[in-house]
Amino acid sequence: MVMELTAESHSVPLSDGNNIPLLGLGTYANPRQTPKGTSYNAVKLAIETGYRHIDGAMVYFNEDEVGQAIRDKISDGTVKREDVFYCGKLWNTFHPPHLVRPTLEKTLELLKLDYVDLYIVEMPTAFQPGDTYYPRDENGKYIYHETDLRATWEALEACKDDGLVKSLGVSNFNKRQLELILTKPGLKHKPVSNQVECHPYFTQPKLLEYCRQNHIVIVGYSPLGTSRDPTWVNLKCPPMLEDEVLVSIAKKHKKTSAQVALRFNVQRGVVVIPKSFNPARIKENFEIFDFCLSEDEMKQIEGLNKNIRFVELLMWADHPEYPFHDDY
After folding, report:
1. What is the pLDDT of residue 80?
2. Residues of the chain whose pLDDT is less than 50?
3. 138-158 pLDDT tens trace
4. Residue 256 near residue 242 (C-beta atoms within 8 A)
5. Closest CA to 283 of 256, 246, 247
6. How far apart are CA 65 and CA 27, in angstroms?
7. Helix-then-strand count for the chain, H and E
8. Which residue numbers mark the site Lowers pKa of active site Tyr (predicted)?
9. Which stretches within the chain are classed as H helix?
10. Any idea which fold 2-323 has?
11. What are the two backbone dihedrals, phi and then psi, of residue 149, each rounded to the nearest 5 degrees?
12. DSSP of 59-88, one letter per residue?
């Protein structure tokens, strides 16, 4: 099956009958450091390059630009709306059921689109609702909120029934939290995907196997490792793209170690959403459909797993639903 992946056609089926392209563009942006128009230009170029999957979130503060780029590429005839797969995310402060639909509607309003293809619970950790995304008390401590993931999920199911979203998924959920949804009495729509950190240094074998058994597609974020920003990245891990094994396999294929890391996941059926606003990198990350890793190379790369997360989110480790205390 994997050999048939092409730049034009690299979607895999979701359990609800929809499809998801295996390669997408991540649009995470630090609003304080990203000049206006950056996200717009990146998404526009990505669609021109051949990307058909855009991963965004309200909390990236750029959904208006992302939506504008998608609409401009539709109106100039490059793509039709149904060719583009957009994933939006429900942030931690919007978990209470009555806030779910208005929040999704806000995303649709920013994008100026009628529906999103996938809408996911960004994290299993609820924060106190209000006008700030990162509520803290006077001592600077995060203010959490009682979490009822099943109630949040029911509100999402209603959004799907009303046509605001085609598919529903989650992100950063561990096995126990996935089971909570899968065993919910009266479950109408199963989560089709779980977006988690996934790359050669953190291959997620147990979670991947559990999700496969339950027909849940893994979407891998930080598929190239991450930035080296010490404020939120675990730097105990060396820069992954300099790994000797990846570099030598890349040389053999006349590719970069980044392209090898992406190809590795795609060949395992893991969706990758590398974020880049750099035009050359956006193009380079897309050029992974003209070579194939051998079984031996796949095994070598699997052997690089260090079980170390770059993205630990330790500032929320005391939340009752912090997902990473569990083995998987």
Report:
1. 98
2. 1-2
3. 999 999 999 999 999 999 999
4. no
5. 256
6. 10
7. 10, 10
8. 89
9. 38-49, 63-75, 97-111, 149-161, 175-182, 205-213, 244-253, 257-267, 279-286, 295-302
10. TIM Barrel (3.20.20)
11. -60, -30
12. GGT-HHHHHHHHHHHHHTTS--GGG-EEEE
N-terminal to C-terminal alpha carbon distance within the chain: 28
Assign 3-state DSSP to the chain and report helix, strand, coil percentages, each to 5: 40, 15, 45
**Structure tokens, 303:** 């052997």
Tokens of 105: 């509607």
Q: For residue 1, what pLDDT is reported?
A: 45
Angle between helices 244-253 and 257-267 (to 10 degrees): 90
Interacting residues of 302 by C-beta distance below 8 A, sequence separation 6+: 200, 203, 205
Quick: pLDDT tens for 91-108.
999 999 999 999 999 999
| CA distance readout (Å), 209 to 20, 61, 95, 218, 326 | 19, 34, 28, 10, 16
Residue 16 confidence (pLDDT): 98
Separation between Cα atoms, residue 286 and residue 321, nearest integer Å: 35
Structure tokens at 269: 């059926």
pTM attached to this predicted model: 0.96
AA identity, residue 311: V
Q: Which residues pair with 116 in a beta bridge?
A: 165
* DSSP per-residue letters across 121-154: ES-S--B--SS-SS-B-TTS-B-B----HHHHHH
Contact predicate 44/69, CB 8 Å: yes
Q: Which amino acid appears at position 87 of this protein?
A: C
Residue in the block written with tokens 């401590």: 141
Domain boundaries, the chain: 2-323
Q: What is the pLDDT of residue 235?
A: 79
pLDDT attached to residue 231: 75
Q: List active site positions.
A: 60
Q: How far is CA 60 from CA 27, 77, 133, 319, in A?
A: 8, 27, 11, 22
Residue given tokens 């780029």 in the structure block: 69
pLDDT at 31: 85
